[in-house]
Amino acid sequence: MSSWFILAFVVTVSDGFAKSLADSIQQIKPSVVGVATYLPTRSPPVSLLGTGFVVDDGYHVVTNAHVIPTKLNLEKKERLVVLYGQGNKPSVREARVFKTDEPHDLALLRLKGSTLKPLTLGDSSKVREGNQIAFTGFPIGLVLGLYPATHHGIVASITPVAIPVMSAKELDVPHIQRLRSPYNVFQLDATAYPGNSGSPVFLAATGEVIGIVNKVFVKQTKESVLAKPSGITYAIPISHVKALIQRK
């Protein structure tokens, strides 16, 4: 087989993957929202907390539970909102917490107003190590306006959310809780930033969502024994989001 043929094959496959990823990004972006609080007397009035994405019937947004503030300044009319669209003047939609799943750090928000476009949720049980993935969110917040950014990589490992420790001194309450109710998470070969918390993780080739980025909750137990926590990104499998949506 000639070197020219091999090169042509590699270029063709790479170009095909790039086109699939580009198509998937365009499919995903309209459904990715910023999760924020709005306080009229604050400057700026909008404070971005993380990322979320539209699911189910278009009236709901899922994000990480740790992104949601524990309390709002109701006296000054502070509200939980989602931001959608793109640019320096995004659309704002009021939201409320509808359901939470603390063990998996998930929150389901209910939107006011008309529906937004929901994403297609895939089957996280079929995810394999080496799958090409991407995630879209707001890694640097609103510094440059509401412009979602996409990072891409692979599923590097499917690993337990918490691992046994060598000494009781290394145990804390979150670690004990997750050892009692273990589940697997996706370790991603791609770097996420604090604003990415709640971003949808999707298969690059199809756009199906297979997980949700988690920047805080998982690292508390996965890397509690490390002197210098890594820049590794983790994601909660989408099966837990589906269970939350279906829970009565």
Automatic annotation (TrEMBL):
Q: Where is the signal peptide?
A: none
* Gene3D superfamilies, A to Z: Trypsin-like serine proteases (2.40.10.10)
Which PANTHER family is this protein grouped with? PROTEASE DO-LIKE 5, CHLOROPLASTIC, SERINE ENDOPROTEASE DEGS
Q: What is this protein called?
A: Trypsin-like peptidase domain-containing protein
- Lineage, top ranks: Bacteria, Pseudomonadati, Pseudomonadota, Gammaproteobacteria, Oceanospirillales
